[in-house]
Write the structure tokens for this entry.
Amino acid sequence: MRRYLLSSVLLIAVLHLSGCAAYRNYDQEMQQTNDQLMRGNFQGALDLLNWNNPWEDKDLLYYFEKGAIFSFANVLPQSQTAWRSADQRVFQREEAVPSGASKLLNRFAYEMGTMLVNDKLSRYEGYDYEKVMLTTQMALNQLAESDFDGARADIKKTHEREALIARQRERQYEELEAQAGAQGIKVQYKDLQGYPVTTLDAPAVIELKNGYQSAFSHYLAGFAYEALGERGLAAPGYRQAIELRPDLAFLRQALRDLDKSPVKADESDVLIVVQSGLAPARSSVSVPIPVRLNENLVIVAPIALPIMLPDTDTPAFDHIVVDGRKRPLTVVNSVTDMAFRTLRDDMPAIISRAMFRANMAAISQAQENERNPAKASLVVTQHDPFEEADTRTWRTLPDKTLVARVRLKKGNHLFSAPNVPGAAPVTWRIDRDHQLVYMRALSDIANLIGNGYAPAK
């Protein structure tokens, strides 16, 4: 059906942008990679990632995933190198302002490719929450090695990126509203039969201010500034975290504690960060779209739309054990909620492109009905192998971020995650006035990340 619509010019433009994206099953690739990760086989996960990305010019997702695998394996220099490459690609695309024929070609390729085929034909730019969490995870790596100055630079990037995304989003929404009005598009995701609407309307999703700002990112900024003695910058970080999650008493406590006396010489103000699970997968679901061609003719076209599938393999956490004592953990961030909110906000644009494809499919079916009245159908009968939602997303990004803040005597301390039966307690050395203890949990394994392992006795 659509092969007749793609001219040679469009095909060249599409290939210019996408490479092999339209034929790649990214979700399946990452399921295999994450299976190795959940077994603690970090080298196996990395080998699969490299096997699935054989081309010399690696894309943004490759560096997202590579950095996360190295971080989980506690190989932080390589993790930072991979994430710096990802950050450089994000920055280049933020700063790039194509002009002339190049700009027209890129826009033409994107709009026509995604409308006529699917969203997988576009170059992967990364979702807004992934860009913000990238620099947050980079700062977390730095703090795990007590590099507060290095973390400060990544925190500054996070703030700048949030501001840029806010401006871009405002313009996109204005353009989308104008376009939808001009095209007369009235379909909303709530009107789609067979689509899991309740997942996008869950209270935890709707309550988020947006899909890209993280209370944890701003709390982490507050902690880093406080450790650096910059309390004037710490307070705004805590306030922003409170604004994003006003329901959490834990965040308000940090702001109140700024006025308390500093830690004693033999004590440390310790922030315990536990990140568990994986970001949700994206999958594709076929949804029937009724297309009214005239007053008497409505043809239904099956169109693929994206859905989110949360990680269910990692147990829930509510505390960590330090020196035999339970320390309650507070969930301050959920990438799953951010991903659902992002999809919810993106659905009008996704539906707009899907409606164009549905109209083209319905017109083609109407023409086929005229040619062969004996087999006329009010449902599109020709299967389109290209009709599939874009399933690319950063899959190794941690899902839940849980925190606790305690004052501990300087020296060796025993940390354990009771919800992870395969993880043995680990001795960790606390030797700074402010210190971060970072644990990464996945399935039934958990790793403490950083350079704080105390010598065995």
Summary: Residues 1-19, 98-114 have pLDDT under 50 and may be disordered. The first strand starts at residue 267 and ends at 276. The two ends are 71 Å apart (CA to CA).
